[in-house]
Amino acid sequence: MTGNTKTALLRNLILPLGDFLFGQRMMSRLKFLEEAQHWPVDQIIEKQNQLLREVIKVSALEVPFYRKLFAERGISPSDIQSADDLSKIPVVTKEMLREVYPQMATRSTGQKTYETSTSGSTGKNFFVIEDAYTAGWYRSTFLLQLEWSGWRIGIPHLQTGMTLNRSLDRRLKDWMLGCHYFSAYNLDDIHLDQILDAMDHHKLKHLWGYPGSLYFLAKRAKELGWNKPLISVVTWGDTLFSNYRKVIEETFHTKVFDTYGCGEGVQIAAQCEFGNYHLHAFDAVIEFLDDNEQPVEAGKIGNIIVTRLHPGPMPLIRYAIGDLGVPSLAEKCSCGRTLPIMDSIKGRSADVITTPSGNRLIVHFFTGILEHYSEIEQFQIVQSEPGVIVIYLVPKSEITPELKEQITEILKRRGAGDLKIFMEIVDRIYIGETGKHRFIINNLDHKQ
Question: Running DSSP on this structure, what letter comes out for residue 12?
Answer without folding.
Answer: I
